[in-house]
Design goal:
By secondary structure, this protein is mostly beta strands. Helices cover 4% and strands 44% of the residues. The protein contains 3 helices and 23 strands. The strands form 7 sheets. Strands 10, 13, 16, 17 and 18 form a 5-stranded mixed sheet that branches. The chain has a 5-stranded mixed sheet with strand order 19-23-22-20-21.
Length: 294
C-alpha cells in the first residue's frame, strides 16, 4: 500500500484548502484509518482523521499523512502548502474619488488614463485589459483607454451592460471592462469596471439661486472630466457678467457677477469651452441660454 497526500500546492493570501489522501494497492477487505499532522508534530493526537483534511494555514506549512489498515500495514506522505501574498487589485483614489466605486465615465474621442494598483508588489505581475481594442497598452497596469462611436460599434455585445447611473439614477448602457493580473508564482486577481461613453452633454436651462439649497447653482455635468473647463456668462445685451475656469468653473455659477452682485431674474447666455485635446466635434465650444428664476 502506498499513501499520497495530494500534490504540493499554494494559497494566495488566506483561505481554506482541502487536502485529500489517495492510496494505491489497497485491500478492500481491510479497514483503513487516516491521521493528519502538521510538521514537525507527526505523532500523538492527529489534527484530522478523515480522508479529506481541511486546513487554513497562515504561513508556509508542511502536512504529514499516515494511512494504516487493521492488518498493521501503513504508509505515509507529506504535502507542502506555500503561502504567497494576495495581489489585491484596486482602483487608485484619484479615479474612485471622482467616480462611483467601479463605475466611471470616459469622453468619446479622448484618451483617458486608467490605472490599477496592487496591495502586494513582492512578485513580478502581468496585466491584461479587456476588451483590448480599447486599451493602449492592453498589458500594463498603467494604460490608456480610448473609445469613439466607431470603436464602440466593434465592442462584443456581451460587454455592453445596462446599469443605473449613480448620478442620474437612469438605466444607462456601460462597457464591461476586465483587468486581470497574475504574479510570477501563479497568484491571480481580477477587477471589473463599468465605463460609460460620454459623447454629448446636456445643460439645464433654468435655475433658482435663492439660497434654499435646491437648484441654487448652474453646473456643467461631469465637470471632473474637464479639468480645463471654462465658462462665460453674458446678459441679453452681450455684456459679460461672469466667467470662470478650472476648479472655479467646476463649482458652477451661482447667479451672481464675479464681484458677488446678485443678478436680476431673466435670461442669460453661456459659452462653455471644454478645452480638451480631441478631434471629436462633440467637444467644440457650446452656447445656449439659461434663465434665472427666484
Amino acid at each position: 500500500m502506498d499513501a499520497y497526500a495530494y500534490k504540493d500546492t499554494m494559497l494566495c493570501g488566506s483561505g481554506t484548502l482541502n487536502l485529500v489522501a489517495f492510496e494505491n494497492g489497497i485491500n478492500p477487505a481491510r479497514v483503513y484509518t487516516y491521521s493528519w499532522y502538521e510538521v514537525p508534530n507527526t505523532s500523538g493526537a492527529p489534527l484530522g482523521t478523515d480522508k479529506t483534511f481541511t486546513v487554513n494555514p497562515t504561513k508556509n506549512t508542511q502536512y504529514y499523512l499516515e494511512v494504516r489498515n487493521d492488518g498493521g500495514c501503513f504508509s505515509n506522505d507529506t504535502v507542502n502548502v506555500a503561502i504567497y501574498p494576495k495581489i489585491g487589485l484596486s482602483v487608485p483614489l484619484y479615479i474612485s474619488a471622482v467616480q462611483k466605486d467601479t463605475i466611471i465615465a470616459i469622453l468619446s474621442g479622448t484618451n483617458y488614463n486608467l490605472d490599477v494598483i496592487t496591495a502586494s508588489t513582492e512578485y513580478p505581475t502581468t496585466f491584461k485589459w479587456e476588451p483590448d481594442i480599447l486599451f493602449e497598452p492592453y498589458d500594463s497596469w498603467n494604460s490608456s483607454i480610448y473609445v469613439d462611436k466607431d470603436i464602440y460599434a466593434q465592442i462584443p455585445p456581451e460587454r455592453i451592460v445596462t446599469l443605473k447611473d449613480p448620478e442620474t439614477r437612469r438605466m444607462t448602457k456601460y462597457i464591461l471592462i476586465d483587468v486581470k493580473a497574475e504574479t510570477s508564482v501563479g497568484c491571480l486577481d481580477s477587477l471589473k469596471l463599468y465605463a460609460k461613453m460620454v459623447d454629448n452633454m446636456s445643460f439645464g436651462n433654468v435655475f433658482s439661486p435663492n439660497g434654499d439649497g435646491i437648484n441654487d447653482r448652474w453646473e456643467v455635468p461631469k465637470d471632473y472630466l474637464f479639468p480645463d473647463l471654462s465658462i462665460e456668462i453674458f446678459d441679453r445685451w452681450g455684456a459679460q457678467v461672469w466667467s470662470a475656469s478650472g476648479d472655479k468653473a467646476a463649482k458652477g455659477w451661482d447667479g451672481r457677477t464675479n464681484n458677488g452682485k446678485e443678478l436680476p431674474i431673466g435670461t442669460y447666455y453661456y459659452v462653455v469651452k471644454f478645452n480638451i485635446n480631441t478631434f471629436d466635434k462633440n467637444w467644440a465650444p457650446v452656447t445656449g441660454s439659461i434663465t434665472i428664476v427666484r
